[in-house]
Amino acid sequence: MDKKAVESIIESRFRKKVQRSAKVRNAYLLVHSDKLNIHLNLAEGKTGNVDANPNQPLHLASVGKLFTATITGILHDRGELSFDDKISKYLNSELMDQLHVYKGKDYSDEIKISHLLKQTSGLYDVFYKLYKKLLNEPQVISPRDAVLWGKQNLKPVAEPGKKHFYTDTNYYLLGLIIENVTGKPYHEVLHEFIFNPLGMKNAYMHGFSHPAVPSVFPAARLYIKNVDLFTVEGLAHIDYAGGGVVAPAEEFLLFMKALLNHQLVKKETLNRMLNDDIPMGFPTPGFNYGYSIWKFKTIPVLLPEKLTCWGCVGATGAFMFYHPKTESTIIGSFNDFSFRSKALQFMVGGVVKTLLKFKQ
């Protein structure tokens, strides 16, 4: 199958997928491979009355966690912190006091930065409970207050290092650690360490910063159960370092290229981010999790090695993955919570399998 046929099939499958879904209002897909000489940047649907455009800024939800992990990696490379440091070195007593009490034992001082990164701290998740709270009582809850609320109202699920449990709480704490180490707000660090050096001119942190160059296109809207997340007062503050990055797909590609080419973190640091991992278990048994990085597990017949990818996922049907076999980066979002699983199925079945059929 030649380049033109591959691109045509991917585009057709993407547009049909969107058009056949009653819940998806707008969707975006970028596929790039220097090896295959393929570059597609697609948009389908509308933002309000405006036709979807491939250059619209996109909020990729928890894909933003990879930016947080990368900044942590940069600080690790600079010697300003270590992945193996205990978090108590960087967080004050208000946060640390009985942060993690599990079955009557206080494990707070045993939590390491690496535990936060790969979601093995054993801490509770506050995001969805606070999200529901915001829907009923609009307010601004700071990331610090979100952690304190969790301490008072929720219980840890495991000892540190023993179990993977996906939670935004870990990434709030990483954001606060980054602020402590740099002496700057997290959003300023995002711009200084990543957006500015990479020329991500339209990129910003939702609710906290502005792009260097405002886009001429509106940011694409994203939804959880028919709720436009941009209309939820206070959401940005419980998104924070657990998501929050908004940029056009082409600028997310700049980030992935820089990460892959070791322009952001050293090769050995990226290798650790990838390979210091743990099985995610239910409800995502097909994945291992590194430092914010989802890795497909090879499953004979069902998911052979040639299909495996690594990257990051957002609950609104967002994804940003690298496929080593074809050296392809695949970025996109269906911008609806109903596609949180379907998006990855489409990425593998609709994109990766098609790329593997390419023949020059």
TrEMBL record:
<keyword id="KW-0378">Hydrolase</keyword>
<dbReference type="Pfam" id="PF00144">
    <property type="entry name" value="Beta-lactamase"/>
</dbReference>
<dbReference type="InterPro" id="IPR012338">
    <property type="entry name" value="Beta-lactam/transpept-like"/>
</dbReference>
<feature type="domain" description="Beta-lactamase-related">
    <location>
        <begin position="46"/>
        <end position="338"/>
    </location>
</feature>
<protein>
    <submittedName>
        <fullName>Class C beta-lactamase-related serine hydrolase</fullName>
    </submittedName>
</protein>
<dbReference type="InterPro" id="IPR050789">
    <property type="entry name" value="Diverse_Enzym_Activities"/>
</dbReference>
<dbReference type="GO" id="GO:0016787">
    <property type="term" value="F:hydrolase activity"/>
</dbReference>
<dbReference type="InterPro" id="IPR001466">
    <property type="entry name" value="Beta-lactam-related"/>
</dbReference>
